[in-house]
C-alpha cells in the first residue's frame, strides 16, 4: 500500500471507472478488487467495496460508498499532452464514453470526475509570462477542448 493514495468516491461503479482509466491512459492499471466482508449501508456482502488502481502513475482507490457524495471540479486529474493527436485521444475517450465537455480544456467523465487535458505548449506559454502568456490565455478562454495550433499561433503573436 502506498503512503499516499487518492481515494475517489463512487456509487457502485468504481471497478468500471478504474478499468476505463486503465484502458485510456498510459501507466495505468487496475490492482486489487476488494469485496465487502459484510453488508453495509449501500451494499451487501460480496459487492465490490474498494478497487485499487493507478491513473497515469498516480495511485488511487475507488470506494463504492453510495450516492451520498458527488464529485465536483474542485478535484481534477490534469493530463499533460504533447500534441493535438494525444489531446484529442484522451478528450474524446472521456467525452464519448458518457462524459461531457467543459471549458478551457476541462471535461468530466461519466462518473463525475473532472479532467484537464492540457497540452504542454499551453503550460509553457503560461510559464513564460508576459504578452505571450496573455495571448495564449486569452485564446484558451474561448475553447472547450484545447486547439494546439491556435495556442501555438497565439504564442507567436
Automatic annotation (TrEMBL):
The family database entries (SUPFAM superfamilies) matched by this protein are listed as: Glyoxalase/Bleomycin resistance protein/Dihydroxybiphenyl dioxygenase
Q: Which InterPro entries match?
A: 3_dmu_93_MTrfase (IPR009725), Glyas_Bleomycin-R_OHBP_Dase (IPR029068), PhnB-like (IPR028973)
Q: Name one Pfam family in it.
A: 3-dmu-9_3-mt
Domain PhnB-like per the UniProt entry, residue ranges: 3-118
What domain of life does the native source organism fall in? Bacteria
- GO terms classed as biological process: methylation
The answer to keyword Lipid metabolism applying to this record is no
Q: Does the record carry ATP-binding as a key word?
A: no
Instruction: Give an example GO molecular function.
Output: methyltransferase activity
Keywords of the record: Methyltransferase, Transferase, Ubiquinone
* PANTHER family listed in its UniProt record: PHNB-LIKE DOMAIN-CONTAINING PROTEIN, PROTEIN YJDN-RELATED
Give the protein's recorded name: Putative 3-demethylubiquinone-9 3-methyltransferase (Glyoxalase superfamily)
Q: Which species expresses this protein natively?
A: Rhizobium wenxiniae
Amino acid at each position: 500500500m502506498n503512503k499516499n493514495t487518492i481515494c475517489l468516491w463512487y456509487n457502485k461503479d468504481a471497478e468500471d471507472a478504474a478499468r476505463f482509466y486503465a484502458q485510456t491512459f498510459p501507466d495505468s492499471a487496475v490492482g486489487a478488487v476488494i469485496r465487502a466482508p459484510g453488508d453495509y449501508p449501500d451494499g451487501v456482502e460480496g459487492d465490490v467495496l474498494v478497487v485499487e488502481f493507478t491513473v497515469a502513475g498516480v495511485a488511487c482507490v475507488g470506494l463504492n460508498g453510495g450516492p451520498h457524495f458527488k464529485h465536483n471540479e474542485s478535484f481534477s486529474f490534469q493530463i499533460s499532452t504533447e500534441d493535438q493527436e494525444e489531446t484529442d485521444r484522451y478528450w474524446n475517450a472521456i467525452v464519448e464514453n458518457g462524459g461531457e465537455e467543459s471549458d478551457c480544456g476541462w471535461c468530466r467523465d461519466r462518473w463525475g470526475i473532472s479532467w484537464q487535458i492540457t497540452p504542454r505548449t499551453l503550460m509553457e506559454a503560461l510559464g513564460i509570462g508576459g504578452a505571450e502568456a496573455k495571448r495564449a490565455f486569452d485564446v484558451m478562454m474561448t475553447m472547450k477542448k484545447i486547439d494546439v495550433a491556435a495556442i501555438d499561433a497565439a504564442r507567436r503573436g
